[in-house]
Amino acid sequence: MKIECISIAGSGTMNEDAYVINQEQRVFAVIDGVSSLSTGVQESEAARTSGARAAELVKRKLEAMDGKELLTACLVEANDALREEMLLAEVDLKKKEDLWGAAAAVVRVQDEHIDYAQTGDCMIFAVYADDAVRPLTYPQVHHLERIAFAKWEEGISQGLSTREALLASCRSILAENRYQANIQGGYGVINGDSACSQYIEYGRINRTDLKAMVLLTDGLFTPRAYGGADPCWEETVLPIVHKGLQRYTDELLALENSDPECMKYVRFKKSDDKTGIYIQLA
Q1: pLDDT by residue (tens digit) across 159-206?
Q2: Residue 238: which residues within 8 A CB-CB, separation 6 or more?
Q3: Domain map (residue ranges) of the chain
Q4: What is the dotted CATH code of the domain comprising 2-280?
Q5: Phi-psi domain of 83 (left: phi exceeds 0; alpha: psi -120 through 50; beta: other)
Q6: How far is the C-alpha of 224 from the C-alpha of 241, rounded, in Å?
Q7: Which end is more exposed in the chain, N or C (fewer Cβ atoms within 10 Å of the end residue's Cβ)?
């Protein structure tokens, strides 16, 4: 296998993403930390955000797993450990906007097959010899983000011209979305809630004609143009396969920097944290 990995901070205070490259167990993962929305519990020890702490906790669990442990079981263990860490920090677990969280996408590469598990909006793609792209996962928050993005575009049409103003118009929707975590009709996320285990998606594919795997946090997704349709996954994945992860990321950053107020491409911040792993299979 040949592996290319990248993890860079976006326009926030720090990189809340993490990744795992466990060569011995052939386990690979990308993790997207989700910080509390409440100011009082936003940052923790050593000035790390709650999202960064959650991502790091999941990373440690995945790095320590053995070859017999199920990927889903490891994510559940991480969820339980996160609950304990929040209790020690005196976080009110009844207030979902206060919870620390993490989305994750993890694969274990075997000789004949690949196991995977996912929660949140991190994505896993299988790429075949003919460049066919097969999404193994679905961004579980898509149906909720669509509502917030519609409000964002409505703000643009009404004359709002700064990211801060557009974000303020959507803030109540984003807060309400936190209460859809790990419930029917909502989305799965590692946030200490015992219901998390019911919303982890997982599976196995065989390696016939498979040439690559691509794991991404949402900061590396090709953004949607204002008034346009959602890009197809091939627009994100195939440039990574053909150009490499670094070049794709550089071009995406250039696009984001050309639109600092998020008026041309609909997104919540100029640049989100970006973490990806591109695995070229033998």
Answers
A1: 999 999 999 999 999 999 999 999 999 999 999 999 999 999 999 999
A2: 127, 131, 133
A3: 2-280
A4: 3.60.40.10
A5: alpha
A6: 21
A7: C
